Amino acid sequence: MAQNENILANVLEIFRHNPKKQYQVEQIDRMLRRDRLGSFSDMVKALSYLEQEKKIITDGNGRYQLAEENTEVEGIFKANSKGFGFVKLEDEDSDDIFIARDYTAYAVDGDRVKVKITAGGNPWNGKGPEGQIEEILERGTKTLVGEFHSMTDAQIKTSHFIGYVLSSNKKLANYRVYISQDSLRPQKQDIVKVSLANYPDKDNPDSMTGVVTNIIGNKNLPGVDIMAIVSEHDVRTEWSEDALEQSNAIPDHVTEAEMADREDIRDQPAVTIDGDDSKDFDDAVVLWKLPNGNYHLGVHIADVAHYVTENSPLDKEAFTRGNSTYLVDRVIPMLPFRLSNGICSLNEGQDRLVLSCEMEISPEGKRVNYRIHPSVMRSHGRMTYNNVNKALDQDNHEELEEKYVKLAPMLQDMAELHNVLYQQRHQRGAIDFEEPEAKIIVDDQGKPTDIVLHDRGIAEKMIESFMLIANETVAEDFYRKHVPFLYRVHETPDGERIKGFFEFCSAFGLHITADPNHVKPIDLQKVVAKTTDTPEEAVVQMMMLRSLKQAHYSEEPLGHFGLAAKYYTHFTSPIRRYSDLMVHRMIHAYSENGINQKVQDHFASYLPEVADQTSTQERVSVDTEREVNDLKMTEYMADKVGEHFDAVVSSVTSFGMFIQLPNTVEGLIHISNLTDDFYSYNEKSMTLTGRGTHKQYHVGMPLKVTLTNASVEQHQLDFEIYDPNAPKKSHNNRGAKNERHGNRGFRNDHAHKGHYRNNFQKNGNHPHLSRYKH
């Protein structure tokens, strides 16, 4: 080798010492001269050789960075319908590895694989690392859902298969799954669930085999489309006989024996406040002012743990489901309706067992005292958000039910306390985005008829404030006891991602002085405040979300960054979340048995499993809900092809722009439909710029668009920019050419019950705009 070995080693060592750092030629020269390690000419030759050998990469303007070393890693293969794919590594901050079609080793979407990295990424041209799959370690797709296609008798006789299934998952739609004769016998056009037996290989690259385990129904029947999605995500819908037997054996009323040793608070005017269509009520609130000027706030939560005992059939079912799943036309509950809508629901006028968190709060919003204890209560009113908002509106003259008039003073005091608590959270740095909620209205045949937007009022925010402080109180109480406990956590974001977010903000003239490696919630809250009601608001909020980590459950008290809370748990929704049920179980155990080592060891032994299962199942439910929403939104738009709409650019990518209509429906304008110029993508500013016209598209930009295609099967909408002077043309069913994009953020952490609320993100029609919750 012509190059000097020492200078090569020294230059390479500079890069390896800080593999993520980008060096300019002058910096490298100074470092070498400082240590008297060679001339400028030697350095240039070394850089040229290292670039040629793909040891380093360059932006072409004198900046260099270490290329990823050729190594083997493990990850999950994410397939693309076109044959290529990406491998996602466990480290969420690592870039996905691109796998070309010829190097997938016949891996299927979801497989755990071993990958050999063949080329490092280049941060200057946006090109990520590339690799080839060396080994399939574990199959990730073991079942699929799709449409059954029958074979003729002659084909059955020669092939030994009764037909084949085409998956409804577009990532698997290229495979024919042949169904063996020892299977259930579906009819043509039936939607079925298949258990896979054999996977693609070099002899059968485009096919698999399996058996039908469940016939969901003919694809044209109402509700089958939704149940197909539910089945594909393995959301459990059937109850074991043992669980139903246990459920049926539970009395439908509270007995005198059950009320013994509980505090009787049935005379307190506690009420439930929920949505108009809610059926299960797991929290009630009551408030009054104390003589010392403080507030007494009672948050009373259905004592589900009293009925769902540890390791019982109902408990095993609830653990498997993890939480209830809320769809546009139905709820798939964590518990049988006999419990969730019956004895566990705080129905008006009925005695119910609860766990109470009673707090004394100062006029400044400081909690000065509290008690957590079992009680028996009786709801004095099933109230709705809509009517409470009307009762709180001094300009409203609509006649309301007597219970609203009677309890109006308490409701006013509740609104007053909410304002205090909100200000207290705001001062400590809690981050809060306000976005309208979209509700899809469907008829009795499951067809979408409307999409209704709903802005949260004082009633919704007030209940949220009360649930948040109850969750924090319970979490801190058991943290102070130094016992095993289950926490809802949202960890501090990675410094590199926050640095990237700050750099992105600088393009909009936002000067942020915070240290990205030690960012605090209030630093990001200030960014939100600076952009509120500005054209940059949407894009800045979206990019902030991308820089955050995802909330989850943990046995470790890691804090909650988004809420700026040191201690946080989920206590307030045990009917619909197993995490809350588990928290109630621990509260009972520590209260009844004392904080002894045996009890602590018992919970410590399986809390990590509970944390993992509840976190996993939460994501399953969110993905299922989102996919059903995407389906129904696409179906709603299907008869509107050719119509024009006002829209806003919600995201910009290298392959086009996602746009959002006022009703929150989203779709794609593919870059191939920007025909007036050749557009280049700038990742840092998230813009598409025309090379000739210099026309630029950016997030938040208003557009007039035309719907060109609505693919109900793929749940995708295609748009193009509306040009009134362009010649009319026919629209086809080509489907959106959606490429990869990721999601981040924290989800489901407003203690608020009910449907998962889109607090931290818009209701998205593509993955990086999924719904985010505390």
From TrEMBL:
Domain S1 motif: start-end pairs: 642-722
InterPro entries attached to this UniProt entry: CSD2 (IPR040476), NA-bd_OB-fold (IPR012340), RNase_B_OB_dom (IPR013223), RNase_II/R (IPR001900), RNase_II/R_CS (IPR022966), RNase_II/RNase_R (IPR004476), RNase_R (IPR011805), RNR_Ribonuclease (IPR050180)
Sequence intervals crossing the membrane: none
Catalytic activity reported: Exonucleolytic cleavage in the 3'- to 5'-direction to yield nucleoside 5'-phosphates
Q: Name one Pfam family in it.
A: S1
Principal place where this protein is found?
Answer: cytoplasm
Compartments it resides in: Cytoplasm
Q: Which domain of life is it from?
A: Bacteria
Q: Where is this region: Disordered?
A: 721-774
EC no. given is: 3.1.13.1
CDD domains given in the database record: S1_RNase_R (cd04471)
Gene3D superfamilies, A to Z: Nucleic acid-binding proteins
**Key words, A-Z:** Cytoplasm, Exonuclease, Hydrolase, Nuclease, RNA-binding
Composition-biased stretches, type Basic and acidic residues, lie in 736-751
Q: Which family is it part of? A: Belongs to the RNR ribonuclease family. RNase R subfamily.
Describe the function of this protein: 3'-5' exoribonuclease that releases 5'-nucleoside monophosphates and is involved in maturation of structured RNAs.
Q: What is this protein called?
A: Ribonuclease R
Species of origin reads Lactobacillus kullabergensis
Its lineage reads: Bacteria, Bacillati, Bacillota, Bacilli, Lactobacillales
